[in-house]
Here is the input.
Amino acid sequence: MASRNASFNEGVVAGALLAPLKLGFLLMLTLVGILVATWIVDWTFVFKVWPEGVGRLKGILAADLARTLELAEWQGEVPSVVTGTANFLYGLVFGVTGIHDLGLRFAAGAALSIPDTIVRNSYLANIDAIEVAMIGTQLLGVRLVTLAMMAPLLVLVYLVAAADGLTQRAIRRACGGREAASLYHHAKHLQVMLVAMGGVLVLIQPVSIDPRLVGVSVALFVGLLARLQWACYKKHL
Here is the structure.
């Protein structure tokens, strides 16, 4: 009969080995959810709100791409990373599934079999929605690169605010000040919500705005909350 310690060790090892897989699966599901949400927003605005239709979405993609390329050049990054990420995400969704190749085959006008004719009719019936999804996927790829380039600013602000908060905590403890564990937890949870909402806003917004406006604003509020969080940290370091 296996001992409890052996079972515990087996569980720890299995959990450590499966943790990366679970994290990867969770990230994949999150990306799929954001992609579907992006398509829904784009379809709604293209077919229901914008008089220009898909032309407006193409303009947003061009504007965001130009702005992100400028930001990449300013940060010393390789501009091909921006277009490469957008093309990779596009290929992952429409290249792997074969939808892109289907469109090329149908556009060539070659003779088709009966099953291919049925697929072509379905493709042509939904070609506008497919085009919007294709553009929206590329736009999402561009905006993912933008978020990645804004991440260092967020980390830097958090670290500076955390250091200042811990300094304020040490001063308060030395002076016999009261601790506030509730403020610590509220500030911590608000940071997660703020970063998540800011990220989703940048990714699925149906307009083209400078992401630095959102990124700097989110970093500022995260810094204030991080300072409050660590200033109210209750446990001993």
